[in-house]
Specification:
- This protein has 372 residues and is mostly beta strands.
- Helix content is 0%, strand content 53%.
- The chain has a 4-stranded antiparallel sheet with strand order 4-31-30-29, with no helix packed on it.
- Strand 5 and strand 6 form a beta hairpin.
- The radius of gyration is 21 Å and the shape is globular.
Length: 372
């Protein structure tokens, strides 16, 4: 997604660090052994496989109309924003044909919805879970700027990231399982805890922040006037320019050792993989627009959507980049500016997109050439 509209492999991620290649004396299959904490995974190359055959394939795709899937509780349950027809329609004239949108859990097996949060005359959506699956960060909005809230999934009580010394939240992202970070309306950045405390972030007072992401003991940021990616050490408050310009999004690997950087010059976008210090850069994808970026928890797969002009034709699609093979595989066509999220196992990917009339979601079930 382009910044102005408001919005790979230099070494596998830490979980896939040690590779040992071996050839069996009993057959001609080539094997790769991946040693992880507590387990070993053997990747077997099929002797009959043609050169260039994808190592990732789609088993099935499930489509869901007029709902927005945003995150996973577990392999069977997703967080959903959808119209709540039990409430009165919206009061604003511009939205009078719409019902409020509420938050639900949806079981993919039983096809049943469980109401989490409803409220008259507003849309609730863009919900993401804390890493411990105990809290939900979501937006409340109608026609204006969104207001961010935190919902306790045990008590179903919520609080807004509003007012006080920060004047409200311009943006909000999970920093860890108990902390949210973002840009403040008062300027600079803020942190909010799941217990309800909200405070400015010391040392980061730059005005009009655009990106604010906490990764381990550092905060990555830039401003709307200067799109260069900066990093501040939270202990020393030292600030460093990573020398990467025109950045509009940063996504950390689950272990925090690598970054995915989305960069644009206005006509062309790049998805770059780098170390946490910005070094060892590798371009994964290029196009006129890139978005929908998410990283599977095992750090093997990176999802992204891409729009590109090929010989005068616009091509739009959803892809996954395999860190193990360094190859991208197409999952779906005619997908534009999707939001994606991986199931905990990494065997399924949800994506949600606006088709110009309504929001629709899909679940893509994947098969890998990998055996445990």
């Amino acid at each position: 997604m382009m910044k102005k509209t408001k919005m790979a492999i230099m070494g596998l991620a830490a979980a896939l660090l040690v590779f040992t290649a071996a050839c069996s004396s009993e057959d001609n299959n080539s094997k790769v052994i991946i040693k992880e904490p507590g387990e070993t995974i053997t990747v077997i190359d099929n002797a009959g496989k043609e050169t260039g055959e994808p190592d990732v394939s789609v088993e099935k795709v499930e489509a869901y109309e007029n709902v927005a899937f945003t995150d996973w509780i577990d392999e069977e349950t997703v967080v959903v924003s959808k119209e709540n027809t039990s409430l009165d329609k919206m009061k604003l004239e511009e939205l009078a044909d719409s019902y409020p949108k509420s938050l639900y859990l949806y079981n993919l097996n039983t096809k049943q919805y469980e109401l989490l949060k409803e409220q008259d005359n507003v849309f609730l959506g863009e919900a993401t879970l804390s890493s411990d699956r105990k809290h939900l960060l979501y937006q409340q909005f109608d026609l204006g700027d969104p207001v961010y809230y935190v919902l306790n999934l045990d008590t179903l009580e919520s609080f807004g990231i509003t007012g006080g010394s920060i004047g409200g939240a311009v943006s909000a992202k999970w920093a860890d399982e108990k902390t949210i970070i973002g840009a403040a309306y008062s300027g600079g950045a803020y942190t909010a805890s799941t217990s309800g405390s909200i405070a400015p972030l010391a040392g980061l007072n730059e005005e009009a922040l655009y990106i604010v992401e906490k990764i381990k003991d550092k905060v990555y940021y830039n401003t709307q006037s200067d799109e260069s990616l900066m990093v501040m050490n939270l202990s020393t408050k030292e600030k460093t320019n990573l020398g990467i310009d025109h950045v509009y999004r940063v996504v950390s690997s689950p272990d925090g050792n690598q970054l995915l950087i989305l960069q644009t010059n206005g006509t062309k976008s790049k998805l770059i993989l780098s170390d946490a210090d910005g070094k060892n850069q590798k371009t994964i994808a290029e196009g006129t627009e890139l978005g929908g970026v998410s990283w599977s928890l095992d750090q093997r797969m990176i999802a992204y959507s891409e729009k590109a002009d090929v010989n005068g034709t616009t091509i739009k699609g959803l892809y996954v980049y395999d860190m193990l093979t360094g190859k991208s595989t197409s999952l779906a066509v005619d997908v534009d500016n999707a939001v994606t999220a991986w199931s905990p196992s990494g065997k399924a990917l949800l994506y949600t997109e606006w088709d110009g009339k309504q929001t629709n979601s899909h679940i893509v079930h994947l098969k890998y050439s990998i055996q445990k």
